[in-house]
Amino acid sequence: MPEATATTDVIIIGGGHNGLVTAAYLARTGLAVVVLEKHNVVGGAAVTEMFHPGFRNSVASYTVSLLNPKIIKDLELARYGLTIVERPAANFWPIDETRSLLLPYGSQARQDAIAKFSKADAARLPAYEAMLERAADVVRDLVLQTPPNVGDGLLTLFKGAKLARTVMRLPIEDQRVIIDLFTKSATDFLDAWFQSPIVKAAFAFDGIVGAYAAPSTPGTAYVLLHHCFGEVNGKSGVWGHALGGMGAISDAIAASAREAGAEIRTEAAVQKILVENDGAVGVCLENGEVIKARAIAAAVAPKLLFRDLVPKDAVADQVAQRFLNIKSGSGTFRMNVALSELPDFSVRPGVKPDLHHGSGIIIGPTLDYLEAAYLDACQHGWSRKPIVEMVIPSTLDPSLAPEGQHVASLFVQHVAPHLPAPRTWEDEREKEAFANVVIDTVTEHAPNFRGSILARQVLSPLDLERRFGLVDGDIFHGQLSLSQLFALRPVMGHANYRLPLKGLYLCGSGAHPGGGVTGVPGHNAAREILRDIKKHMRWI
Question: Around 278, how many Cα atoms within 13 Å sit in the side-chain half-sphere?
Answer without folding.
Answer: 2
